[in-house]
Amino acid sequence: MQFKTDNRGLFEYSLVSLNNFKTEFLELNLDLHADEDEDNIRTEYEEKFSQKGFNIYKIVVKF
């Protein structure tokens, strides 16, 4: 499962919540667009908030 957001508070809350379920974290990225994989598909919202200077956070987990 993959999760991306521009909201740092939501990102941090998600990390804590997922950790409580003993989820395996495969990837954590605090600035997706600074270190972007070529297979990342940018959403309209990603583009919008990235252009405004917001970092895009990404979590990839395995349940």
What's the number of structural domains? Answer: 1
The unreliable regions are: none
Order of helix and strand elements from N to C terminus: EHEHE
**DSSP helix fraction:** 25-40%
Tertiary shape: globular
Number of alpha- plus pi-helical segments: 2
- Termini gap: 8 Å
Q: What's the gyration radius in Å?
A: 12 Å
Strand content: 25-35%
Major beta sheet, specifics? 3 strands, antiparallel
Q: Structural class of the secondary structure composition?
A: alpha+beta
Name the average pLDDT.
95
The strands making up the biggest β-sheet line up spatially as 1-3-2
Topology, number of strands: 3
Task: Please summarize what this structure is.
The protein is of the alpha+beta class and 63 residues long. Helices cover 33% and strands 25% of the residues.
Task: Give a description of the structure.
By secondary structure, the protein is of the alpha+beta class. It is built from 2 helices and 3 strands; from the N terminus they run E-H-E-H-E. The longest helix has 13 residues, at 8-20. The radius of gyration is 12 Å and the shape is globular. The model has no long low-confidence stretch (mean pLDDT 95).
